């Protein structure tokens, strides 16, 4: 009886070469957009200039860490202006407010700093213009979101909110030939376009807004996630649950082929079980998330063997906004230098994808 020679033992190098390399695909762009950066800096500068307390109507941006950090510095967050002492200073959040809120602040002699994102202000102006022309305005967005409340408040008799494609059949208008759509700036691009498609089936002459309402940063972050998701067993989105654009990134990741996707505020919220059998982890963050929170997630993953980080870049952003007019005026009166956007700062431009 002949025996079969034993197979030669595999070397450590051979075994290592057969073990999948754990890696992180890091989305770019991610994190703070120009509007969020402006709003957060506005509260910080107001505290520096005027001292605590500085009141803020609603969350300045939808991020737990940012709100807690500013609260520690002396910002007081309130739901409505009637909670602010008469004559005190209040900052309006990046999501914008309705004219009724502005009037209520004036009635209490509040010193206001309007930190509304300029891209949201653009949508407000569109709403006013179309209402002046007596259009029915279909606002694609989510009921109850601060931005939608502010925009709808610009022309409440002309605007109706459409939450999703499934609500299109319920829409009624006065004149089907005089209808226009506008949108919340932080929506899923794909879902918004599907809603518009269905609306146009019902109202063939539906007019588009003069320019894209969905924020460049929202779109850029979704495009980056679409690029990396098919190569990921898991996509972690850093962001808060009340952040519309962060929640959308989870949806985009799942719809684009990620094995799983979760939203976390902090690295400590990551469940170790999510990493079972996972080789490739995608990481991104919503437009209201500071980079320090992403760094903590990367450190968490590195400690568990995901030390290789490859950036997946789909755009470069260099848009910056000036600080709110009221704050700039106060700074000038106090002899404080007002920061200016660097020369050449402009809207985000697409670039070649790497990584």
UniProtKB/TrEMBL annotation:
The family database entries (Gene3D superfamilies) matched by this protein are listed as:
3.40.50.11270, 4-hydroxy-3-methylbut-2-enyl diphosphate reductase, catalytic domain
The entry's keywords: 4Fe-4S, Iron, Iron-sulfur, Isoprene biosynthesis, Metal-binding, Oxidoreductase
Q: Which domain of life is it from?
A: Bacteria
Q: Which reaction does it catalyse?
A: isopentenyl diphosphate + 2 oxidized [2Fe-2S]-[ferredoxin] + H2O = (2E)-4-hydroxy-3-methylbut-2-enyl diphosphate + 2 reduced [2Fe-2S]-[ferredoxin] + 2 H(+); dimethylallyl diphosphate + 2 oxidized [2Fe-2S]-[ferredoxin] + H2O = (2E)-4-hydroxy-3-methylbut-2-enyl diphosphate + 2 reduced [2Fe-2S]-[ferredoxin] + 2 H(+)
Q: Per the record's keyword annotation, is Iron-sulfur included, yes or no? A: yes
Q: What is its EC number?
A: 1.17.7.4
- Pathway terms, separated by semicolons: Isoprenoid biosynthesis; dimethylallyl diphosphate biosynthesis; dimethylallyl diphosphate from (2E)-4-hydroxy-3-methylbutenyl diphosphate: step 1/1; Isoprenoid biosynthesis; isopentenyl diphosphate biosynthesis via DXP pathway; isopentenyl diphosphate from 1-deoxy-D-xylulose 5-phosphate: step 6/6
Q: Where does isopentenyl diphosphate bind?
A: 62, 95, 145, 243-245, 288
Q: Which GO terms describe its biological process?
A: dimethylallyl diphosphate biosynthetic process; isopentenyl diphosphate biosynthetic process, methylerythritol 4-phosphate pathway; terpenoid biosynthetic process
Positions binding [4Fe-4S] cluster in this chain are 33, 117, 215
Q: Which CDD domains match?
A: lytB_ispH
What does the cofactor field's note say? Binds 1 [4Fe-4S] cluster per subunit.
Necessary cofactors: [4Fe-4S] cluster
Record keyword Manganese present: no
Q: Binding positions for dimethylallyl diphosphate? A: 62, 95, 145, 243-245, 288
| Pfam families documented for this protein | LYTB
Active-site residues from the entry: 147 (proton donor)
User: What role does it play?
Assistant: Catalyzes the conversion of 1-hydroxy-2-methyl-2-(E)-butenyl 4-diphosphate (HMBPP) into a mixture of isopentenyl diphosphate (IPP) and dimethylallyl diphosphate (DMAPP). Acts in the terminal step of the DOXP/MEP pathway for isoprenoid precursor biosynthesis.
What family does this belong to?
A: Belongs to the IspH family.
Which NCBIfam families does the record associate with it?
Answer: ispH_lytB, PRK01045.1-2, PRK01045.1-3, PRK01045.1-4
Q: What is this protein called?
A: 4-hydroxy-3-methylbut-2-enyl diphosphate reductase
Q: Could you tell me the gene encoding this protein? A: ispH
């Amino acid at each position: 009886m002949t025996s079969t020679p034993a197979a030669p033992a595999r070397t450590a190098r051979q075994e290592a070469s057969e073990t999948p390399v754990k890696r992180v695909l890091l989305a770019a762009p991610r994190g703070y957009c120009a509007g969020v950066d402006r709003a957060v800096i506005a509260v910080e500068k107001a505290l520096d200039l005027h001292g605590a307390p500085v009141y803020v109507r609603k969350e300045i941006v939808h991020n737990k860490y940012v709100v807690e950090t500013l609260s520690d510095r002396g910002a007081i967050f309130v739901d409505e202006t009637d909670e602010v002492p008469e004559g005190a200073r209040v900052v309006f959040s990046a999501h914008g407010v309705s004219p009724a809120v502005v009037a209520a602040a004036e009635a209490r002699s509040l010193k206001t700093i309007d930190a509304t994102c300029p891209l949201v202000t653009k949508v407000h102006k569109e709403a006013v213009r179309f209402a002046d022309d007596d259009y029915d305005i279909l606002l694609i967005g989510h009921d109850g979101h601060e931005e939608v409340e502010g925009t709808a408040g610009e022309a409440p008799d002309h605007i109706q909110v459409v939450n999703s494609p499934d609500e299109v059949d319920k829409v009624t208008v006065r004149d089907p030939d005089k209808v226009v759509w506008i949108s919340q700036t932080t929506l899923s691009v794909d879902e918004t376009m599907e809603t518009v498609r269905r609306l146009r089936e019902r109202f063939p002459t539906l007019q588009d807004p003069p320019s894209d309402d969905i924020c460049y940063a929202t779109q850029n972050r979704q495009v980056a996630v679409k690029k990396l998701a098919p190569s990921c067993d898991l996509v972690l989105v850093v962001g808060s649950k009340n952040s519309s654009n962060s929640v959308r990134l989870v949806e985009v990741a799942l719809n684009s082929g990620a094995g799983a996707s979760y939203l976390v505020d902090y690295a400590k919220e990551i469940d170790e079980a999510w990493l079972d059998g996972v080789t490739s982890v995608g990481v991104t963050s919503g437009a209201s998330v500071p980079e320090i929170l992403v760094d903590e997630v990367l450190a968490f993953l590195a400690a568990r063997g995901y030390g290789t980080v490859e950036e997946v870049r789909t755009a470069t952003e260099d848009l910056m906004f000036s600080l709110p007019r009221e704050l700039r005026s106060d700074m000038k009166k106090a002899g404080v230098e007002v920061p200016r956007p660097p020369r050449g700062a402009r809207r985000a431009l697409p670039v070649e994808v790497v990584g």
